[in-house]
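Risk register update: the risk of archive-format incompatibility is retired. Evidence:
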Amino acid sequence: MQDRVNARQLLVEMGAKIDHCAGSRDRKQSPLHFASSNGYTEAVQLLLEKKANIGYADSDGRTSLLHASSNGHTETVKLLLEMGADTSWVDDNGKTALHHASRNGHTETAKLLLQSGADVGHTDRHNMTALHEAYLNDHRDTIEMLTESYMREYYAHTNHMHTDQSEFKVDIVEVLIERGFDFNHSDTLGQSLLHAASVANNMKTIEFLTKMGANVNCTDNNGKTPLHYASKCGHTETAKLLIDKGSEFSYTDIEGKIPLHDASSSGHTKTMLIEMGSKISTADIKGKTPLHDASSHGKTETVKGADIDCTDEYNSTSLIGASRFGHTESVKLLLEEKADVAHFDTSRRTALHYASRYGHKDTVELLLKMGGKYLNEYVDIDGKTPLHEAGRSGCKETVKVEQLEIVGRLKQRQLLLEMGANIRCIDRSGKMPFHYATDNGHTQTAKLLEAATDDNNCVGIPNTVVYKLPSKALCLFHILCPPSSTQRPLSKLAFISPSCLLKIYSWRKDITPVSENKRTNCSH
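Archived output:
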């Protein structure tokens, strides 16, 4: 060892560069970095006496103090501190020397850093403190030292026990509480230890905390209790334990949701909560019940006792929600429970409208099978039928039910046509499904609809009339004629079904016929 010291001294005296940095392979570290990292205190002293840069950082942003602290070289750390090393320096990850010492369980080194002014509450780029590091690596002695010496300052920051919920350690919780930690203390998200233990499914910790008197109905910034989180995560036994310890079913979060809402949307724990007494009819601030949430996520196994046709603020039912997202099995179950297939929301759209819009062919087929052909005749607030919706989205699930095409989705549209959908029905903007298909570039769909104009879907109406809509003058016959027709149609038959004509009248009562001599009002 003495020979090494002499060799270093000789090199320095011969003019070796004190702050020469190694290449990128060695992270551009200086001799002082190497000496500090290995705990060569005498070498560190020699280099510092020769004016080595104590604050120089390597390619990771680490100074000599961080290297010495990370490896627990307390004497080297002490020397560096005496020579003016900065305890607040952070590396590229925002970690201080205290972070590095705590992460590796170097209790004495961490204690020395604290005595020299290191900030126990400093957080890195990931919002981690030194106590996080000690906790995550299960360094009990370091945790005891940090909590015992700096508990009050520690309180001013976050609840450090919440970080790694999957590795929740009850013995460390015990240490903190023994040292005066407030088990009801909440972090910046308003979450307590019980919230974290519930997410982690750690029943042992929950048992311990509730025995110590932790509040099982504490709420976080979103108004959620530990039971909300246990329910959402599907931790049935943990949820049951919380209920046994006094957790309430009726606590609502800021959205008005009870734990059963969270359980339903995740498909977990529903049956247990219902059996324990949770009310399935409870609505949140938007009028949605747990059944609405379950249906939107395809989780409707438990529907007994629920109001199948209850509506939210948009007059939407569970059937509409399930159809919108294509949960065919849920749709089937709801229909078997006598859900109203013809119910429409505030936009006058039925479940079939939404299934058609989003291209859920199987759901469309099921709705038509169980609801009947008449569903094709329903128009929404804009005068659109399910076929309009299918045309707009280019849902090519149609041409032939057995034929799947890669570009677009036609099968469901073919299905709608086979079930008697009115191809020529126009909406308030004067458009048929064909127009939506062409406007959106769905070529195959447009061809399908154009070809279908020769079927027997439409009947002729003599005594053609031109209609003027309030938004713009429209010649109804021009709109409804096949694209190839260039003749003036006033003396011809207008190809429009009676049902479509009635719907046009139902949209706006101020639609009035205009005579042929007022032809100038026609936009065509």
